[in-house]
Amino acid sequence: MTGELKKRSDAIDAAAADAAEEAVEQAAAPTELDDVAKAAAEREARRQALYEENERAEDERARAEAERMRDVDDEDEDEKPRDTWATVRRLWGEAAGDHWRFYIVFASIVFYVIFNTAAPAYSAHVIDELWGHMQVAFANGTTFSITWEHCGKTIFIYFMIWTAAASFYALQSFLMSSVAERLNLRLRNRIAQKLSRLPLAYFDAHRPGEVVSRATNDLDKMSESMQRGLLQLLVSIGTVVGAVGVMFVFSVPLTLVFLFFTALSLLVTKVVSRRTHDVTGERQEWVSKITSAVEEGYSGRLVIRAFNREHQSSAEVHEASGELARVSTKADFMINAVGPAVRFIGRLAQIVIALVGCSMLVAGHMTVGVFQAFFQFIYEASEPMTQLSFTFNSLQSALASAERVFDLLDEPEMEADPLPDEAAKLPGRIEGRVAFEHVRFGYVPDKPLMRDVSFTAEPGQKIAVVGTTGAGKTTLINLLMRFYEIDGGRITLDGVDTSRMDRGELRQQFGMVLQDAWLFDGTIAENIAYGCPEATRDEIVAAARAAQVDFFVRTMPQGYDTRVANDAESISQGQRQLLTIARVLLNNPAILILDEATSSVDTRTELAIGRAMDALMRGRTSFVIAHRLSTIVDADLILVMDHGNIIEQGTHEELLAAEGAYADLYLSQFA
């Protein structure tokens, strides 16, 4: 390990020294055209500043749009499972180690319902006994008092019934929370492992918010519904059945009156809820439109002001806000009205039951204890009935979430790496010879992109890959890194078939600077050392100097210990690019891949990077993708791609002499 670090440090120092030496040589050169060059540099700097600002605005807009689409997707996702019982059976299988907890939960629910129903029923006996002793004391002219023999024992039993009910409720809540969180953790870990085994084609076909939602929103919704919804459903069903059964025992006429008004309230709730769902959906659409308009106004503020469109942009927001206010007023009224309407029906039912019950009480067909117990059962039965439909919808939504999680877990995985003993090994010293031999590939199996791609990159050569947008340049690099598996032919590194190698060992040989410079949440030093966490601070600083980014880092508040994130506005796109180049420099890879590495920096920075990269690329096989052909005229081999295939290959001079596609592309940029 020490030898590798020393070798890497020497390479970085050499790159920095070469860059410094060339800078000194430039400073010593004649300066007759300094004024002209300085003016041109200032114009280029202004142009680049505007370019970077627009780039940042576009990035912000893209991120905001992705977030908005994620939120809209979450709203639009089907909230009913395709196969309810299949999902339930699979959840039961996932919780195999916790079945005993479920059995205890079910048993505790049964006992809770029994005691919870027995308590109001027994209260009738308590009230009647108290009322009887009070009447006897009043008739005898004595003072009424509660003793163990006179009502004390009855009250104690009543208290113990409620205590038992509360104990069983606490037990089932604790165990169900344990089961739900353990299942949540198990599935979340499986998703984390699954994501590392999914092919990149899956991520190409799914939006980031959709994938993130599986591991966060869906699992949380499932867990919450198991802890509350499932318990509430089972307890509510048991409570309603027990309460209505006892109510029929107490009084059939009063129970029928109660059921009539309950059916009426459920009907009102269903009608209003359906209408409320439509209105809230319309409100969500206007919220999305306002969000989009505000994001567009913020992200595209430069263009809006440049074309004097401030008034039109503001008018769009005002119009959407007015419609949102109108729809929200209607939605809020309906949401707030359903509760009072149901309560009004409930109060009306209580008045009717009270009138009928009083007549029965006066006639001697009902005792005082039974009368008050009946009203307790009205509350016991009506509240769960009101919540049952909402609870059922919540459980359906949770099962739909679980089904989406299982869909992710069932996605086909990329081909597994060979076992360590069976994997092909690279020779001790990597030369860097890369060969594509009749490679065939397509993102969609029946739509091939590459049909017969062949070329050889000799050790130490600089290979340039050019072509119009969508020609297949990035695809070629993705295949080289085994981000995708080829459909035919083979790719070799120093004669070893890469498909027989361990992916981790293969990718250790490459250093990659992506077109989109990505920074992770952490310090600048941690970002530079991302691929080499054991690097020392001196090595990190040396890599930053070689990448021409050390001066910028030292201007930050805490230098290399300044915390940054990918959305940090204090770092320009060009500076991000420099930091990612420093990251690659530190890793000292055998093969370099530069995917339009200097397309987002100004000319002066590009020249500085070019000098450092030239020093680094000496003796290393390098693949360079660039739209600006001026950066690759010195390449040892230029691959011209079109629709996934190599249509020309050769040096700059050879391809210009051929007067083919490369010559046309070159002349279009420099004519």
- The coarse overall form would be elongated
Structural class: alpha/beta
Largest sheet: 6 strands, mixed
> What is the CATH class name of the domain at 434-670?
Alpha Beta
Distance between the termini: 51 Å
Please give the radius of gyration in angstroms: 37 Å
The strands making up the biggest β-sheet line up spatially as 6-9-10-3-11-12
Helix share bin: 55-70%
CATH architecture of the domain at 434-670: 3-Layer(aba) Sandwich
- The total of helices stands at 20
What is the number of beta strands? 12
> Uncertain spans, ≥5 residues at pLDDT below 50?
22-34, 43-78
CATH T-level fold name of the domain at 434-670: Rossmann fold
* The CATH fourth-level homologous superfamily of the domain at 434-670: P-loop containing nucleotide triphosphate hydrolases
In round numbers, the mean pLDDT is 80
| Oligomer designation | single chain
Instruction: Note the beta-strand portion.
Output: 5-15%
Concise summary:
This protein has 671 residues and is an alpha/beta fold. The protein has helices spanning 2-28, 34-76, 84-94, 99-140, 152-197, 200-205, 208-250, 252-299, 301-306, 310-362, 368-409, 473-480, 503-507, 524-528, 537-546, 550-554, 573-587, 603-617, 652-658, 661-670; strands spanning 434-441, 450-457, 462-466, 488-493, 496-497, 510-513, 522-523, 563-564, 591-595, 621-625, 637-642, 645-650. The chain has a 6-stranded mixed β-sheet, sandwiched between helices. Strands 2-1-4-5 form a 4-stranded antiparallel β-sheet, with no helix packed on it.
